[in-house]
Specification:
Blueprint lengths: L8 H6 L15 H9 L14 E12 L3 H7 E3 L7 E4 L3 E4 L4 E6 H10 L6 H9 L3 E14 H6 L11 E3 L6 H5 L2 H7 L14 H21 L10
Antiparallel strand pairs: 1-6, 2-7, 3-4, 4-5, 5-6
Length: about 230
């Protein structure tokens, strides 16, 4: 049998023969995604999900009406150095490298893509037309060491990656208030956004991020029709 790499049999078996770059967001549900993926290969009958090693996966969860300023003031990324956090153009937060956390204004991102003439998915178009404010929490994982079959068998295992996102109710910290820090922190937050602080507390926000991913991944994997929210 022809081998594409000049290594021994054991090493060759661990190296993929073909690399496929495919984005689930362009497919209404998993069945459509799988049909397109398998259709790329002439030996369709011999294909199985276990033969595809996932080299990168992006997990995402969307929260409506949550300003980036509120996220930035509350966010604590567990296991990351403080200097690994960066804010780009006031609307995108980056944390770490692998896994890489990206939190951003999804509507601004869609508008920027359209302005550059880049492709925009059907869901993104509908999101833009909805007029909603949407903040996306995205975790990019490389070298996942899972097959596509592993991901499909237990997609909820991946939700644990969102545990890295923890949030802090700084306004409830007595030490900060006693030193006058609360007044300083609140002064940095636009007045129009202060009302949402009560709506997005630490545990509530953490649960929303997790639950939105769980709901969307379950719907996309098990649905026969078009999913309204692709989790990847």
């Amino acid at each position: 049998m022809w081998k594409p790499h000049k290594f021994g049999p054991e090493m060759n078996d661990r190296i993929p023969y073909t690399k496929v770059d495919i984005n689930p967001k362009y497919f209404d549900n998993f069945k459509v995604f799988q049909g397109c993926l398998f259709g790329l290969f002439s030996e369709y009958e011999e294909m199985s999900l276990g033969r595809f090693n996932v080299s990168r996966i992006d997990l995402k969860s969307d929260i409506e009406d949550l300003p980036i300023d509120v996220v930035l003031s509350r966010l604590y990324a567990m296991g990351y150095r403080r200097d690994s956090v960066s804010l780009i153009k006031g609307s995108t937060i980056y944390v770490g490298t692998n896994p890489k956390i990206r939190i951003y204004d999804k509507i601004k991102e869609i508008k920027a893509r359209r302005k550059k003439g880049w492709s925009v998915s059907k869901d993104d178009e509908e999101m833009l037309l909805s007029g909603k404010q949407i903040t996306r929490f995205e975790i990019q994982i490389r070298n996942l060491k899972m097959t596509l079959q592993d991901v499909i068998d237990d997609p909820l295992e991946l939700v644990s990656h969102f545990d890295r996102l923890q949030f802090y109710n700084f306004e409830d910290d007595g030490k900060i208030a006693s030193m006058g820090g609360l007044q300083l922190l609140m002064s940095k937050i636009p007045r129009k956004n202060r009302a949402v602080f009560e709506k997005f507390k630490d545990k509530d926000l953490e649960e929303q991020v997790r639950n939105n991913y769980i709901t969307s991944v379950t719907e996309w994997l098990n649905g026969n029709e078009r999913s309204n929210d692709v989790p990847f």
